[in-house]
Each structure stands twice: as C-alpha cells, then as structure tokens.
Amino acid sequence: MTLAGPLADRLPVAAEGAASWRDRLASLRNGLYASPAFQRWAARLPVVRWVARSRSRALFDVVAGFAYTQTLAACVRLDIFALLRDAPQTSAALAGRLSIPAEGLERLLRAAAALELVEARDGGRWGLGAMGAPLLASPGLARLVEHNALLYEELRDPLALLRRPAGDRGTALAEYWPYAAAGRRSRVGAADVAGYTALMAATVTPIAEEILDAVPLDGARALLDVGGGDGGFVAAVAERRPGLRLALLDLPPVAARAARRLRDAGLADRVSVHGADFHAAALPGGADVVTLVRVLLDHDDDAVLALLRRVRDALAPGGRVVVAEPFAGVRGAEVVGDVYFGFYLWAMGRGRARRESELRGLLRAAGFRRVRTRRTRYPVQCGVMEGIA
Predict the structure, then answer these.
(1) Which residues neighbour 217 within 8 Å (Cβ) at sequence distance 6 or greater?
(2) Domain 140-388 - what CATH class?
(3) Helix-helix angle 102-114:46-78, to 10 degrees
C-alpha cells in the first residue's frame, strides 16, 4: 500500500504561513492515525502492528479508566489484598467471608486479575498480583483510593465542573479541606481537620523518604516544617538527623494533633510546635532550612509568592527552602500533575500543580537564588526544588 490516492487526499494540509515543522509533522501523524485505511495497512506489518496495538490499548485504557479505578476501589473496600496476604484463597472461601455472591465476586476477581491486582493460582485459588502487593506496603495508597470517591463525584459531570467560575468552592472537596477558604481558616476546629490530617499522615512516609534521600541536610542546624500536618515529616527527619533542631507550624487544631503525636513518639523535647495561620502570621525565625511539603500546590500564585517571601524573611542568611510536591509536566509522570491534580485542585477551588519553570519563577520572585531541582527516584510521588535565601 502507498499513501497516494484517497488516503493522501484526506491528510490535513498546513495553512500557508503556518506553523512550525512540528505542527506539520503532527498534522501528518494525526491524519494517518485517523485513517481507517492506514490502520488496516499498519495491522498487517509486524513492527508497525505492535505500535498500532500498543496505541489501541492505550486509547482503550483512557476510555475504560473509570472501570479500572472502580475495580481497585471495590478491592480496597473489601480488603481483598489483606485477605490474600498470607495465602491464596478460593473465590468460594472469599465470598463466604465477604458476604458477596460468588458470581459477583468472581467477576470482580477476574477484573482485578486483568489489572494485575490479583492473579489466578492453581486449584481455583486467587493470590496477590504484582500491582496489588505494593498496596500492602503503602497503606496510604488505600486511604487515597477511598478518598477519591469525593473526586469521582465531582467528575460525574466534568463539563459542569469546568464551567464553575475559578475559585468557586461550593464542592465537597472544598469542604473536606477547610483551609481552602481564607475566611474559614480562623474558624477551623479539631473536627474540621481530622479527616484531611489523617489522610496526609497516611501518605507522607514514602514522600518523606524521597525528600530526605534527595536533599542533603549536612551542616544544617535547625529545620522548620511549614504546613507540617500531624508531624509525620519532622518525625522522619528526626530519625535521620538526630542532632537537628526541629520545628513545625500549622493551624492550631492541626498543631495540637502534631504535639500529641510527637509527644507519643518521644520527640516533644526535639520539636517545637507552633499553631498559627502561615498566610497571616510571621514564621518562627532561626531555621536554616524551611520545608514546604505538599503545601504550595493547594494555593494560588499570589498566596504562594506571599508565603515564599515570608519563608525567606524567616530564614537565616544563606538558609534554604525545600519545596516538595507533584510537579506538572514531568516526563513519565504527566498524568499526576496535569490530569489528577489538574482536576482535583479545580474541584477544590484553588491551587494547581506547577511546572518546574513556574515554581522556579516564583522562588526567584520571592528573592531566592541558586534555585535548583533535586531529582527523585519516583517523580510520580513528588518533585523537589530548593533555593537559597
């Protein structure tokens, strides 16, 4: 087959004066992909067939993604991964324990096996799969799966969500994160912060390990964790750096939870806990490292710039700020910043995942110099950037 004749006639032609060679190549590629004749031709050639099948599978994954996530959610809610932790089980045995009809459970297990969450074993039994086993090592992922039910509700009508005015906070996600509205922060109580603080605590451990492996703290004397939640990150720092003085700042009811956790961990003498709104209050001084772990993406640019300037004022001369959060546009992790957090934060009513260049610009505008990105092993979990005051 050649690309002459009817197929060539259907390929888009770039407008005069147009665009770059990239646009022309993209137009040619998309014309080919959109052509049934080309798809039939490609399916007959061994090498091209592999590419075509891969593209077809990827496209179907996008179409069927909601069913995939609901399969995972059902497994998490039934605690199937924990039930299979010690030994494979038959579907009949699982059905008896879970009060799920055998036919329905079999349908779920087959779906989970297709996603490699579980796998079929000998004797009609089911065991953990390659994608299911890591969920046991990271309980925070299971908490996140449960929490995502709020996001799924917001996405039932994505066009209605996107048509909401920017900053509209009349959603369940905005209610879940009460600090999202400036006027509410002073009225936030212990019950308001319990849910999101527990979620952040459950998911902070792998992120803390990534940050501490990526950022050398040699020579640091004092570290302040701003927006530090219940103290999970500073507890990880305390274990890695026994001689480092530590401080944490968060809203008063969150700080109270942190004080209790750190006291129970035997760290009350090492960590000073401050309850305040970091958007309004001056930050405690004396630190030569200030960390912002999953803090900036929750806020719009003006608030981020103001906070970074406040951080710079609090740092000792030559001190460092360390920003850790999901970046947008990171090769291999694009779906995290641009898809997941893109929609999540829009539904929340504030903030956005930023590209490295955008964060670098905000840090420099706040007066930081020698801004650099610290590479992490798993950018899907977080990116790390630091600057010098």
Answers:
(1) 223, 237, 240, 241, 244, 289
(2) alpha beta
(3) 140
